[in-house]
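fold-stage: in
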Amino acid sequence: MDKNDFSGKKTAVALGMFDGVHIGHRSVFERTKSFEKNGFRSAVFTFDTESINQKHGKPYRYIIPNSVKLDMIRNAGISDIYCSDFSEIKDLGAEDFVKDILVGRMSAGAVVCGPDFRFGKGAECGVEELKRSGERYGFELSIVTPVIKDSETVSSSAIRSLLTEGNIKKANLFLGYDYRIKQIVSHGNHIGRTLDFPTINQAFCEGQLVPAYGVYSSHVLLDGVSCSAVTNIGVKPTVTDSSVPLAETHIIGYSGDLYGRTVEVTLSDYLRGEKKFSSLDELKKQIKKDTETALGGIKIG
């Protein structure tokens, strides 16, 4: 849990879940930082995305792990973060949230959010109530207009749908960066080595949204160098009967040992759906073809 000491200087507080830290979220952060000219410190109130199991009565799947989210918020120029476990605050009334957290704990002089922000037990209140609270407690409310891309409102829910559909290019457009998997490299069944296409295996976190099963062109950041790669997301039906999805990445031209290291893989294009092949030889031929496609048609081997 990340709860900085907010005592003293007034803050401008950005409110939201900020799952994915997409281009709409960053517009909220930019508005928040604009209050620094008034002498306010920029801050964020958010929830630990991994502490939420359901939203609007449906299973909730987050886009990026909470630790990655917090790093991205800091990299956006906001170092003061109040990140609460959802269970600690879900039964807190709207008035208590404003009085005890925004004003009492975070010393809010300004509050920034989108027009659909809800707060209080059962999401009982919205921006109109928040505006009236600001008038009572002495903070300014600033509402940020949603960002529109391709005639569509950018939102975390829209990005989840795009990832589920395998529309990685549009998801990346909405995110403002290439979707990333940043996890420890674990041991697999080593089948890739027998096919002359060694891979690194990375698990998704519990509760995390898994993009559409299939093969993606990708890049792997190794010691500051971006390497071309091909990533399969799924359950590898040709070689296993597992139901647990993994990201399995072949780094083109790389042969080192990455076990135990935390590696960042970014997805840039969706090449094809996951398929069960009749033989390992057929699988090997397809991996070669996928690799050539990821390289822009350059023949290998």
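fold-stage: in (second)
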Amino acid sequence: MKQQELITFNRPICLEQSVAYMDDAARRGEIRGDFRYCHKCSAWMEHRFGAKKVLLTTSGSDALEMAALLCDIQPGDEVILPSFTFSSTANAFVLRGARLVFVDIRPDTMNIDEQLIEAAITPRTRVIVPVHYAGVACEMDTIMEIARRHHLLVVEDAAQAVMGTYKGRALGTIGDFGCYSFHETKNYSMGEGGAIVINHPAYIERAEILREKGTNRSQFLQGHVDKYTWVDLGSSFLPSDLNAPSGV
């Protein structure tokens, strides 16, 4: 019987330059988060996507969890999301005590049906989470118009949509927040990694605090305070500088 060959599901690209950057970070002893390569990646994405602020995270899931925190989700708040998505989209808001309201998807795009969103809105609704499945853009004009009319926040789950666009705008930069994944299975990979896009300057300072375990350490590193302390809730959302060279 002839032995069958297995088709590899995904094979992440490892560039020589990326290996050289990781070696450079290790030799410099700059292996914690937010050293030169984290900053290079973030700056490149901000320029490439026209984003206000991009912060690398340890996963796309963590980016979504940061977005849920920035949306100030409280127990009992409702979040609208598509009935077809990955568990991380739901988990991020369930962890904050939200009630999930699933809206059916369009058969042509597998994305949330924008025509069904408004009927799902109640006085408890706080956030709409469009998921750009397989890099295909949701109908963001309609979604944003509904959100603004009802005073709702929009979190784009663009985990599979890095480099995707909608009417010339990068996916992840249209809503209030955007979330990317750089998992091994994605087109751009850090092995495990992600990024959150902050599209309104008012949220940047708190995002940096949440990402640094609830401390204002980022302000300390920028020379804005003479010491850092615990000022808010948060977690360790920032990746090692060793991860950054293999991302974007």
